[in-house]
Amino acid sequence: MSAMIEIVAERGRQGECVGMDEFADFAAGAMPGLLRYGHALTGNPHDAADLVQGVLEKIGSRWSSVVRKAGDPLAYTRRAMANAHVSRWRRARRENLVPDIPEAPADQVRYAFEDEPLWQALRSLPAKQRAVVVLRYYEGLSEAEIAHTLGVSAGTVKSQASKAMATLRTRLGASAEGR
């Protein structure tokens, strides 16, 4: 984790950013929570680390502007992570035609929670609904804080949470009946 902070801070220093010590302190303090949030958004710790590092690199390069304009850098960072995840997810959904069938991947590492019904149901939610659920029930933010973090209205937060919870109840109810 500290290696990631150093990489981000060093790239910021190369860009001659003002306040890099403040940014390094912010990144060090926020990193555990951002990694947990990223893990819940992406579904695995490796993509979460990539997401956090990419967002912190962008934010670090213009840290003084972020602090001056955003007011709450942590909320700004969470919103940037959600937006970056949605953008990455949209790019990944595009179909890529290839001339040959790809080889089967080597044995992939499986995580302890990967087969849990709740985890599978959470991963199947659309990105915005998952972000709302994670911020509300994992990070413990209020509707107003979630709305501010994601840059949407409180009504959107409520509707996304309602749809997500209905989907989770349906999927988890079906998996409980199947046991």
From TrEMBL:
InterPro entries: RNA_pol_sigma-70-like, RNA_pol_sigma-70_dom, RNA_pol_sigma-E_actinobac, RNA_pol_sigma70_r2, RNA_pol_sigma70_r4_t2, RNA_pol_sigma_r2, RNA_pol_sigma_r3/r4-like, WH-like_DNA-bd_sf. Residues 117-168 form the RNA polymerase sigma factor 70 region 4 type domain. It holds the Pfam family Sigma70_r4_2. It comes from the Bacteria. Keywords: DNA-binding, Sigma factor, Transcription, Transcription regulation. GO terms for biological process: DNA-templated transcription initiation. GO terms for molecular function: DNA binding; sigma factor activity. SUPFAM superfamilies: Sigma2 domain of RNA polymerase sigma factors (SSF88946), Sigma3 and sigma4 domains of RNA polymerase sigma factors (SSF88659). Residues 32-94 form the RNA polymerase sigma-70 region domain. Belongs to the sigma-70 factor family. ECF subfamily. This is RNA polymerase sigma-70 factor (Sigma-E family).
